[in-house]
């Protein structure tokens, strides 16, 4: 039997970002994530336990569970998958 659902090749970062943006598999910001006051999170998916500090900017990105985005961070089209805190300006990077 062939599954008639959606199949995607997630081997490239563009398709990975698009899948998270377009599939609507759950809330974009997990209820267990912490978003600081004044942080901007737009077009992004944020996993459980992730912390985005006040003043940070996260645009069109995927933030994995338990990741930490520091207050001075400015991220666009990034995939944050490490346990190390992320700071500074990053575009089109895997962190």
Q: How does the SSE layout of this entry go?
A:
Layout: H1 13-22, E1 34-35, E2 40-42, E3 45-46, E4 51-52, E5 57-59, E6 62-63, E7 68-69, E8 74-76, E9 79-80, E10 89-91
Parallel strand pairs: 1-4, 2-5, 3-6, 4-7, 5-8, 6-9, 8-10
Helical content (DSSP H or I, runs of 4+): 10-25%
Order of helices and strands: HEEEEEEEEEE
Strand order of the largest sheet: 2-5-8-10
The poorly predicted ranges are none
Count of discrete alpha- or pi-helical segments spanning 4 or more residues: 1
Distance between the termini: 39 Å
Our estimate of the beta-strand percent is: 25-35%
**Can you count the beta strands?**
10
The assigned structural class equals: alpha/beta
- Mean pLDDT over the full residue set: 89
Radius of gyration, CA atoms, in whole angstroms: 14 Å
Shape: globular
For the biggest sheet, the summary is: 4 strands, parallel
Question: Your description of this structure?
Answer:
Helix content is 11%, strand content 25%. It has a four-stranded parallel sheet, with no helix packed on it. Strands 1-4-7 form a three-stranded parallel sheet, with no helix packed on it. The model has no long low-confidence stretch (mean pLDDT 89).
Q: Could you write a compact summary of the structure shown?
A:
The chain has 95 residues and is α/β, with parallel strands linked by helices. The protein contains one helix and ten strands, in the order H-E-E-E-E-E-E-E-E-E-E.
């Amino acid at each position: 039997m062939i599954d008639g659902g959606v199949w995607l090749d997630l081997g490239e970062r563009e398709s990975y970002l698009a899948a998270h943006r377009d599939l609507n598999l759950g809330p974009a910001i997990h209820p267990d994530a912490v978003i600081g006051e004044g942080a901007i999170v737009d077009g992004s998916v944020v996993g459980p336990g992730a912390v985005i500090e006040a003043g940070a900017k996260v645009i069109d990105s995927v933030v994995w569970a338990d990741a930490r985005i520091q207050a001075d961070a400015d991220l666009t089209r990034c995939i944050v998958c490490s346990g190390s805190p992320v700071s500074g300006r990053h575009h089109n990077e895997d962190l």
